[in-house]
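Journal club prep, shared notes

We agreed each person brings one worked example of a sequence with its structure written out as tokens. Mine is AhpC/TSA family protein. I'm keeping it raw so we can talk through how to read the token line rather than staring at a rendered picture. Sequence first:
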Amino acid sequence: MPMSNPLPGQPAPELKLDLIIDAEWDLADQSPDAFTMIVFYRGLHCPICKQVLSDMRRDYDEWLAKGVEIINVSMDTREKATKAHEDWGLDPIPMGYGMSKATAREWGLYLSDGRGESEPEVFCEPGLAWVRPDGALYLAERSSTPFVRPDLAALLSRVDFIRDKSYPPRGTHRS
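Then the structure, token by token:
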């Protein structure tokens, strides 16, 4: 099944997930002041994900103050997602788990086959999306390797500019 290429400015793909706290999360129900930031991470096995998500947690209150609500999402099992959440010190950021391959493809994420015992059979490579309160995709980043990630500090520093200037989503040209 080929992966999609969701376009900024268009409705974001559907995203419904179970959270490790025995609740359900639905993108359609979110109402952030600025954006919902969806952080797609590879899983518990990834030390780079641990560093990126831990750094994001450090600035979590600042993200919230700027109107950006965050959820971390992986294809991991509930047990692995819970362990990552606890061991990596990610509380109180919502942690979604069990994302399907079909959903990962709808979001344009790359999928990898696991290598060795520590990696799951199949998992998504990292990605990040910002979705506006109206459900439109604003920003989409994805990588085919664990080594390339957006600069979260730079993104955080631009939230006010984007809101104040009504800066439009980019990458919207179709022809």
